[in-house]
Structure formats: structure tokens, C-alpha cells
Amino acid sequence: MPRLFMLLAGATPPGRHTEQHDVFFGIAETAADLVPGLRAFWPDAGKGLHVDAWRAVTVVNGYRVEVQEGAVDTGMHRLFFINLGGYKKDQFDEFHYKMIVAAPDKAAAVLAAKQTAFFRHTGFKGAPAHIDDKYGVDVDDVYAIADILPPSVKDRYRLVLTPAETELPEDEIHLGYFRLDRAEQWGK
Fold this sequence. Notes:
Blueprint: E1 3-11, E2 20-28, H1 35-41, E3 50-57, E4 59-60, E5 63-69, E6 78-86, E7 95-103, H2 106-113, H3 117-121, E8 123-124, E9 127-128, E10 130-131, E11 143-144, H4 145-148, H5 151-154, E12 157-163, E13 174-179
Antiparallel strand pairs: 1-2, 1-3, 3-13, 4-5, 5-12, 6-7, 6-10, 6-11, 8-9
């Protein structure tokens, strides 16, 4: 059964001095099945492309997430990917909190993001927490996950959100250095 996956890809592309990261969403039977799509998504990452974290997205803030055949989405809620950025005084870094929100629209997704502890407690005068990066440049550019899936996936599947009747366990987040040439071992 196909599921939605979220992968945190990492690499030190040629000409860079530190590891870079990006988030890739795909639909497949297993996370390992997404390796060709991930390589196509970030072709300039080089041989060091790997995954630092991944999860099957099955539950988001009280909604069961299912993948169904058909590209037409008729649901009342959609999934949004938000990348929050923030700073800590005297830390030479920008910290990030990546989240998925089930909401009826972008405005509601942004409101939910601004309620997180990360948004409220990261940042200080002159360097406030903010919604950040290519998939969240500012409040107007939070993306629905269905819109940033690979084209072949968008044409074939839709994401269906159903309110959970009982509390569901959170999705397991797999952390570590996952090599693409050993993807068949992920989750084992």
C-alpha cells in the first residue's frame, strides 16, 4: 500500500564547506523505493547524498493520512509543510524546525506554526523567528505538500485526511545516517 514519506536529505555538494539539507516528499510502498526520485530531486548533491531522517506520514495533528489513487483532492483539510527558522543569542547558526500541519488553508497552517514552542521561544530582538526557506519564504509561501510532490506522483495519487476517532500514535521518526546504497536496510 503506498504511503506518503518525508525525507531529510543531506549532502555536501561540490564547492560547499558544510553539509546542506533539503526535504523531499514522495509516495511509495517503502522509503527505500524513493531513492531514484530523491536522486532526481537533488542531482547536484553528488555522491555523498544521504538521508538524515525519514518518516512515513500517517498521522498529523489528529488526522489520519492516507494515499489513494486519483489526482482529485476533495478534502476539507490539506497537508502543509512549514520550515520555521530562528536564532539563539550568541549562537552562530540559524536553527530550523520542520513541521507538517493539517489545515483547511495556508492561513490556518501558518497560525498553527506560530503557536509552536519553537516559534515563540526562538529568536530575539533584531532576529525574530520566521517562516523560512524555499518551501516557506514568508507567510504567503507555505506550500501544500500535494503541490510539491514529484509530477508523476501528483498525477497518480491524492492525499486523504480523515479526522481520527481515537488518539493515534505519532509517526515514528527514523534518525541517523542512511546511505542510499543501503536503502533496503532502512527501518530494519
